[in-house]
UniProtKB/TrEMBL annotation:
Species: Thiohalospira halophila DSM 15071
Keyword Membrane in record: yes
Pfam family, one: DUF2818
Source superkingdom: Bacteria
Membrane-traversing stretches: 6-28, 40-61, 76-96
Keyword tags: Membrane, Transmembrane, Transmembrane helix
The protein's name: DUF2818 domain-containing protein
Length: 109
């Protein structure tokens, strides 16, 4: 039971962290970016740092759950990076497709 809760908590944390760079214009929700706006490259860099944080949490969870960390090849990291990108899709679509559409048609900001 504890492993199941740990896995679902990790998936929930990954979902939240994958979406954070596209939700806020602040860098890591704290720092004002240079120039006042956070560009796409800065968002991707922030997203990748969040990926590394989730990976560290996953390593800690694996060590706690089974007492050992298994060696992984490049395929594992390619799949987890792709999954993290899929998790980020809702906020990415909101930032670059849906929000500008609302701003154009409704004057929404």
């Amino acid at each position: 039971m504890e492993q199941t809760v740990l896995v679902w908590a990790l998936i929930g944390i990954a979902l939240v962290l994958a979406n954070l760079p596209w939700i806020s214009d602040l860098f890591f929700f704290v720092f004002e970016p240079p120039g006042g706006r956070k560009g796409a490259w800065l968002r991707l860099a922030e997203w990748f740092v969040y990926y590394l944080i989730v990976g560290g949490l996953a390593l800690g969870a694996e060590n706690r759950a089974i007492g050992d960390i298994h060696d992984q090849d490049w395929e594992f990291y390619a799949v987890t990076l792709s999954l993290f990108a899929v998790f980020a899709a809702p906020a990415f679509v909101w930032r670059y497709q849906f929000r500008p559409l609302l701003q154009r048609h409704r004057g929404w900001k």
